[in-house]
Amino acid sequence: MAEAVFRAPKRKRRVFESFEGPLPLPFGPRKDFRLFRAELLNNGVMVRDAAEMEQLYGKGYFGKGILSRSRPRFTVSDPKLAARWKDVKTTLPIITSEKYQRGLEWAAERLRREGQDESAVQSALQDLARPCKLPWAEGCSELELPAEPSAGKTGPEAPAAKNGHSSAAADGEGPRPDPQTPNGLAECGDMALPPAAAPQGPSDEFVLVEEPRGDASETQEAPGGDQGQPRGLVCRRNPYRMPEYLQLSLEEAFFLVYALGCLSIYREEEPLTILQLWEVFTAAQPSFRTTYMAYHYFRSKGWVPKVGLKYGTDLLLYRKGPPFYHASYSVIVELVDDERFQGPLRRPLSWKSLAALSRVSVNVSKELMLCYLIKPASMTDTDMESPECMKRIRVQEVILSRWVSSRERSDQDEL
């Protein structure tokens, strides 16, 4: 074993992201400071707002999309269709009519499993598949909407707006949504959707379905598409309804609350204080206090710690963030006292287990680090009931490397 010496990490060959600045710290009044909101659900912390998810992940790489590998960018949109309709500036997913029909079948099967009779299922499917007025999206100037069915009343096609946006009225006589309205409602048939359904970013409420054009006045021909069978986009309700959330680990969530002061965590619409979070997270994860102290230490040093469960350790340390570098270290965290350098170890390691962890770390181009949190022998469990106890904790890192006899012999021969 040797004292930890941080080495240059291995940079990834293909990087498709640009590094953003970190989250601003609230030192005095700042216009760019924003207090994010998260919810405590089933011992997990979730962020729902699309803009907040992008901010938290992009400026510090906090959390992970529950439907994505890392950055929360999951969408049901068909990549080929999205490329074909790239001139239509919209955040709504674009899918094929075949995929939409499969979604309707999935929704019908779910309703039947819930005990709904067939008439109720068919009625629900008709309401679901009925063409909707397009939620107002800035930049969507060339997209025309299908005419919604009305009771014996069809009006002329509404003229385009002066700013280049087309009318969203079903029969040409209804009011158009106001793009200046902060929380304008998006109407679907006779129902008014809540403001959250009118997407300011990616939305799971509506989809654009590419279908054959029945009437030239209903949909717009696909740019670059087949002239023999023109296609168009129809706005319909999304039968999949798989929203993307940003899932924060308990350590990440507490760091945003305690260290940065930019997150508020709610449980049943009630915000939790720092002491309440310290208690709740400890009850949900008995090792939380120990792992958070190490997380706080490495974050303060400029590293991006992530959960190291897949490599059998507590933390993985990244430089800048996972998109740019491979993890440099796999970290095992232990809390000991300063007299005998001993304590109730969370993970009693034998030489066999240490050799196994070392071999795994070497095979994935990482170094195994033992991080010892050294507390005063006089510190009691009562003192640990507040995060202020971290002020009395010292940290020592030790790098564990595997001795390879063949490599040692070759080094001796060179000497």
List the keywords.
alpha+beta, six-stranded mixed sheet
Structure write-up:
The protein has 415 residues and is an alpha+beta fold. It has 9 helices and 17 strands. The chain has a 6-stranded mixed beta sheet with strand order 1-17-16-15-14-13. β13 (303-307) and β14 (315-319) form a beta hairpin. The longest helix has 17 residues, at 97-113. The chain is globular. The model is unreliable at 136-202, 216-222 and 224-228 (pLDDT under 50).
List the helices and strands and how they pair.
Elements: E1 2-3, E2 36-41, E3 44-47, H1 50-58, E4 64-65, H2 79-84, E5 94-96, H3 97-113, H4 118-129, E6 187-188, E7 191-192, E8 206-212, E9 231-237, E10 246-248, H5 250-259, E11 263-267, E12 270-271, H6 274-284, H7 288-300, E13 303-307, E14 315-319, E15 329-337, H8 351-363, E16 367-375, E17 394-400, H9 405-414
Parallel strand pairs: 2-11, 5-8, 15-16
Antiparallel strand pairs: 1-17, 2-3, 3-10, 4-10, 6-7, 8-9, 11-12, 13-14, 14-15, 16-17
Helix pairs in contact: 3-4, 5-6, 5-7
